[in-house]
């Protein structure tokens, strides 16, 4: 992993060109392809269990990977007690995610997070707070997190979020369609949501902790990509089980298969439960191993996280000073 990113802490993401590629136009639903998809759970779990022992980075290499991880974070607040002031502070953190003195010591300039993710009601506040930064606003939509409101209301919510300035929409699928194998219904629903997003990129949240099996995860991933999802995302962060490495491996291999068949690149977003810098490194290693360098850029990979950034800051400070600081010194706002 030390040679996977050919960079040092002085040559990190903010200084690298972003990859440009066409959005996912989708394709007609191919039920034969969906039915053929399987998932060998024991093999997937064995592959993931070995990852930590084979992938380790230290010193400047680790600092470079952690700076890379920061640029891939969808900095998120999705709490019932969100206020406009909290969102404004979060956006200020998104603009300046690491203390200036640390960036100066690391030879880094212009580092920001990948996006800010909020509820619809906070989209306008976030757009205003991020004006001129180039950081997109992502809105969770479609009856988040359960996704059980009537479809016409979910589509209307998407439309309103796009009007308010959201450049990315994180939608939630109806889990019942995957659990009952009604792939046509899932496809039709996802296609309608994709159309409602218009120019905004759409991330399809599968809520993998509620899909029962890795086979369902693989098939739901494929159906959402066929319907035009620009990203597939693990979780809302509200399920009992959120992002895991086995789920990630299952989903990114579906992404690889979709690209092999269609030539289209689809992004991936693990969300929920990724709060430690060491975990972020494992996800980056897996992405690099399975999909390659293009999926280490913000247009194809994001972390959905609220507390990950604070732990990365602590690790970077330890790298520079040899001491760990208190977590409250790296607040999100």
Task: Describe the structure in your own words.
- The structure is a single chain.
- Strands 7-6-5-4-3-2-1-8 form an 8-stranded parallel β-sheet.
- The chain is built from 14 helices and 8 strands.
- The N terminus is likely disordered.
- The chain is an alpha/beta fold.
- Helices cover 45% and strands 10% of the residues.
- Helix 4 packs across helix 13 and helix 10 packs across helix 11.
- The chain is globular.
- Strand 5, helix 11 and strand 6 form a beta-alpha-beta unit.
- The protein has one domain: Aldolase class I (TIM Barrel, Alpha-Beta Barrel).
CATH-assigned fold name:
TIM Barrel
**CATH homology-level superfamily:** Aldolase class I
Number of helices: 14
Structural class category? alpha/beta
Helicity level: 40-55%
| Net shape | globular
List the helices and strands and how they pair.
Elements: H1 31-36, H2 41-49, H3 51-54, H4 59-71, E1 73-76, H5 84-95, H6 100-106, E2 115-119, H7 123-129, E3 137-140, H8 151-163, E4 168-172, H9 175-179, H10 183-197, E5 201-205, H11 214-226, E6 231-233, H12 245-262, E7 267-269, H13 277-291, E8 303-305, H14 308-321
Parallel strand pairs: 1-2, 1-8, 2-3, 3-4, 4-5, 5-6, 6-7
Helix pairs in contact: 2-12, 4-13, 4-14, 8-10, 10-11, 11-12, 12-13
